[in-house]
Amino acid sequence: MGVRTAKLIGISCCQKSFGVFAMKNHAASDTYVRAVDQVVGAVPVLIPANGLHADVETLLDRLDGIILTGSRSNVAAAFYGGPPQPPDDAPEDPERDQVTLPLVRGAIDRGLPVLAICRGLQELNVALGGTLHQRLQDIPTRIDHSTPMQPFGAVRTGKAHHITVRSGGRLEQIIGRRSLAVNSLHNQGINRLAPGLLVEARAIDGTIEAITGTGRGYLLGVQWHPEYDFDHDDASLRIFQSFAHALNSANQWQ
User: Catalytic annotation on 225?
Assistant: First the structure.
């Protein structure tokens, strides 16, 4: 058997119901797979949301990097001490959380690059001890960050508001700018920032839109969805290129 050279990138899945019989499936959007195929140049590996049955240590032994995906589901309130979620809100997916939260902590301990997107940013914060706002749109000082109820994909995923990027921070080094228009498809957002994380960008209402870790390893979370437009948006492309560089460099942030 030859030496393995291709990098393996774990992509977190959610439990979702599809089809006439509404059976549970483990699923992740094709946009993440395409980003790994086309930009990162690695082998995408879907990580099922199989809860306590997941062998996290084996995953960490085999994978070279992690992408935490966005999802309609919310991080379960029980994992950050939040109040019960309103029954009419987006569903929780605790079996995903049972996989991703220890996976994040283990990846950081091992120095594996982690790119966390939308729900993934929220998981990253909770995994390290932070808390979440459950519904940003219910806070009087915040704008509505939730998904537009719009059948046209280009409108749902189009740019919704601007963010301000921290001067001299790692995100600015990646995208090369201090202001950026982003899409917005989330209800939850960071409340208390976890220890070991830095704010890299905020929305116009103060909502945290990007975070990095204080350590040397590559750890980036963004609240928007760069996987939707990496094929024509330079900033989105640069985010996945920076993740690709981290996989192949001893100095992951250079």
Answer: yes
Cα angle for residues 52, 54, 59 (degrees, 5° grid): 150
pLDDT in tens, 111-168: 999 999 999 999 999 999 999 988 888 878 887 777 766 555 565 666 878 999 999 9
Looking at the DSSP assignment, which residues form a beta bridge with residue 254?
none
Q: Which two tokens stand for residue 176?
A: 């090369």
Helical packing angle, 119-127 and 94-110, nearest 10°? 70
Query: Which listed residue (118, 145, 186, 200) is catalytic?
Result: 118
Helix/strand/coil for 61: helix
Q: Which residues contact 27 (CB under 8 A, 6 or more apart)?
A: 13, 14, 16, 18
User: Is 161 labeled as catalytic in the residue annotation?
Assistant: no
Virtual torsion, Cα 78, 141, 210, 51, nearest 10 deg: 20
Q: Give the 3-state secondary structure of 110-137.
A: HCCCEEEECHHHHHHHHHCCCCEECCHH
Q: Which of 56-60, 102-106, 139-143, 168-172 has the lowest mean pLDDT?
A: 139-143
Q: For residue 14, indicate whether it is catalytic.
A: no
